[in-house]
Amino acid sequence: MRTRAKYITVKEARAGMELCVKVEVVNQGRLFSLPSGHKLTGDNLFQLVAHRAEFIFVTEPDPRSDEQVATDAAAAAYRIMEIFSGADLTDSTTATLFNQVLIYRSA
Amino acid sequence: MTSHLITRDEVIERSKGLPTFPNILNKILNTIDDFEANSNLVVRHVKQDPVIAAQVLSAANTASKARQRGDISDIHAAIAMIGLGRVREIAMFSSTSGFVNSFAVKEIPVSLWTHSIAVGVCGEELANYNATPELANAAMIAGLLHDIGQLWLYCYYPAELRAAFRDTRERHIGIEIAEREHFGLDHQQIGSWLADYWHLPADICAAIRYHHQPDDAMQTPLVALVHVAEVLSNALDLTGRIENHVTTVSTPAFKLLGLIWGSESRPEFGPLFGRIEARSRHVNELMQSGKFL
């Protein structure tokens, strides 16, 4: 199955998710860390909450079909075009931002 | 098209019927980052706000009980027990929730608050990304307050403001332009009058005043930070509000923050977007679990 990497809140994290990058959280002078590639356990989730971690970067299975991925990308592109409908896309900074958001949403 | 010309006198006079943003938050955040040097000052500021002091003590006693230790009744010991990160969180959420709650009787859309929180978080992330963490606290507060002028308009001219928002959607123009057509001035001007009247720091006042036209105030980095934070917040559709539109984008502001998109020297825009999105959701969830949104 295809996977996708995304930033999620600790509340959204589930046991079994794999970390894309290491986590290091310091709370009250105590360091809690987990290495890249580590699969989260229930105890890890508890520790992340206890150390007041806010977000993590994980890889998760992407069960969507190719058609669904294409549909989602089209919907995201439509919304981005709506958001930028009043922007001057001949301006290079605006155009680059538009493209970067488009790429980010298609990932 | 101008329906009513709003003056500074009217804004200040009517603001007396509104809550004042608690400046104590700014004082706590400014001293908290250097606790070793300012420990007595942090303690004094925390003591000045009974609600924050009570919440700090409550959190410390909960932690102390969990470790089977005795009661804590001293603020200094309480801060040592829970850590400065938790104090910062308590001060931030307590002050903001008190401020938001005091508007509960008014018909302020929740999206105004969630957007303000998102811009605050985005500003904080940009400050850290741009290696200016000393601006992170001010960026959060300026983000929370950048649309304070709209809040005033919602209180006293809600129908006209909604009409201005309709114009932005139908004519693809920025809200600041629609407001100038309806009121003769925009929410930046109203917000800066309020911020000045509340004696907020000069850079926060400037960020409120110029966040849609940062090129007029590039000497104040916080202005560029809040401008870019709002542009990214809208571009990334944070909080999914219908008003999310990108109209004006300041190239000098983006350059000042080192955001040279897509360049090989700064290829990490994806993680930046990801962190902004995740943290915005996290903070908004925290706020909503506090049941004041």
Describe the structure.
The complex is a heterodimer of chains A (107) and B (293). With 107 residues, chain A is an alpha+beta fold. Chain A has two domains: 3-61, Molybdopterin biosynthesis moea protein, domain 2 (Alpha-Beta Complex), CATH 3.90.105; 66-106. Helices cover 39% and strands 24% of the residues of chain A. Chain A contains three helices and five strands; from the N terminus they run ββββαβαα. Chain A has helices spanning 42-50, 66-83, 92-106, and strands at residues 3-9, 18-19, 23-27, 30-34, 55-61. In chain A, the strands form two sheets. Chain A has a three-stranded antiparallel β-sheet, with no helix packed on it. In chain A, helix 2 (66-83) runs antiparallel to helix 3 (92-106). The two termini of chain A are 16 Å apart. Chain B is mainly alpha-helical. Chain B has two domains: 1-18 and 105-293, Orthogonal Bundle (Hypothetical protein af1432), CATH 1.10.3210.10; 20-102, no CATH class. Chain B contains 16 helices and no strands. Chain B has helices at 8-15, 24-32, 35-48, 50-66, 75-82, 84-101, 110-129, 136-145, 148-156, 158-171, 175-183, 187-197, 202-210, 221-235, 251-256, 269-289. In chain B, helix 8 packs across helix 13 (202-210) and helix 8 (136-145) packs across helix 14. The longest helix of chain B is centred in the last third of the chain and has 21 residues, at 269-289. Chain B is globular.
Give the key terms:
heterodimer, A: 107 residues, alpha+beta, three-stranded antiparallel sheet, two-stranded antiparallel sheet, 5 strands, extended, B: 293 residues, mainly alpha, Hypothetical protein af1432, 16 helices
Helix content of chain B: 55-70%
Order of helices and strands of chain B: HHHHHHHHHHHHHHHH
Number of helical elements of chain A = 3
Name of the CATH architecture of the largest domain in chain A: Alpha-Beta Complex
The figure for the number of domains of chain A is 2
Number of strands of chain A: 5
Number of domains of chain B: 2
Structural class of chain A: alpha+beta
Taking strands numbered 1, 2, ... along the chain, how are they ordered across the largest sheet of chain A?
1-5-2
Helix content of chain A: 25-40%
Write down the CATH topology of the largest domain in chain A: Molybdopterin biosynthesis moea protein, domain 2
Report the major sheet of chain B.
none
